[in-house]
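WARN retry 2 of 3 for item q-0093 after timeout on previous attempt; input resubmitted unchanged.
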Amino acid sequence: MTNSVLDLEEADCILITGSNTTEQHPIIGTRILRAHEERGAKLIVADPRRIQMAIHADLWLRQRPGSDVAWLNGMMNIIINESLADEEFIANRTEGFEEVKEAVARYTPDVVERISGIPQEELRQAALMYGQAERAAIVYAMGITQHTSGVDHVKACANLAMITGNLGRAGTGVNPLRGQNNVQGACDMGALVNVYPGYQVVTNPEFTQKFEEAWGVTGCSDKVGLTVTEMIDAAERGEVKAMYIMGENPVLSDPDSNHVIEALQALDLLVVQDIFLTETAELADVVLPGCSYAEKDGTFTGTDRRVQLVRQAVPPIGDSKADWVIICELAQRMGARGFDYASPAQIMEEIASLTPIYAGVSYQRLEEQGFLQWPCRTAEDVGTPYLHEGQFTRGLGKMHVVEYQDPAEMPDDEYPFMLTTGRNMFHFHTGSMTRRSAKLEQESPEGYVEVNPEDAAELGVSDGEQVKLLSRRGEIQAKAWVTDRVPRGLVFAPFHYAEAAANVLTNPALDPQAKIPEYKVCAVRLEAA
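OK item q-0093 returned
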């Protein structure tokens, strides 16, 4: 997030897109509703489904899945034509505006309505509501990133924020909500294919030399590696021979699950480190028992760059060990040097010494202050509640021309429905933890498919009846939930349930830049079981 969770309460207008906020980020959702109800902040929600946040919204835009570039460009078209663009901010802090202005001129309200299904007057209301606000914040999640055009969706959000000057101030910003509790921290620590910790790119020889000297090694690769989905494809081709998976369950969470299983079975060696025997761990040659958050010390970095301590509440159960202990013991047995840390606090000292944005973070400061938000560059730095004040990291903020493109797979005669996937309030990710909770399982015990009443009537499907959902990649069976939460032609399935795994159906087509799969759109057929 460019800004902070607390910051959202200072916004005058909040635009939410691709985020079922109250169900998946309920604390953040509560703060947004507080700003809306107590301070009168305007709330715009763009979502194909009638989620809870859409009921609270001043304006609900029901776009077709994957059409976000079109309606975001359409909002910019109206904002520019209504003289609501922040000309001073554009002139002093950005580049590329004229090219973007020329591009969005083609996205007139009537064109946007044909592409997205959003009525022209509603688009105009949204543009004026956002453009006239003194402080406007954009909040998004994986509903706009998990597309073959996901990067373009994010760029369009950034363009909208820059055109209106809604960056570098409290109550503004472009604020992605991370899908799991320490995804931000994992990325910060270099769990990406192209960077060392702190987003120091592997292709820069200065960074490579810096880490080689610190770690006492030579020959660190300057090549960008494979992303998660690319690794699966490479395993199936026999190009990746072994895989070490920590705290992840790709059999349920990756697209085209049957393909994932075949790829993992083709490996010479699969090692899985987890706290439960997940569907992925069941395929492993070796399972290393890790610890839950309650059994170890460490830090989590939240979606708004907030670093907080995790304190051990109970000793590790059985033969399990903290993840950092397992990694160090494995490295030592493989002959590596330098994996002799005494504690997570000592690991944080190394992080601070090599990672400029974490340089001022220490366990002592976290104990005293409760949290720090990076960038926190010195021991005296109080941290950064919002980014880009006065200047962007690269100097001028760069606007990008982005054009609408159809999803990789659209409905047709054979597969006439569009499937979108996501989560529900009661389960987390692949259900490895929450489905072992009797209370949560009682609330949502089985997979389901949301079907519009008119579609259900045409198909002869009743509420609660078992249905089959089929795509070009496989089929699942689940209970039909007949509801107007979804419009005609769209069905929704959560991916938590192994017995009705939505990702058996999803399309592994990737965004060409970020390599993110298109989880949110694929063509399916619905039948009574």
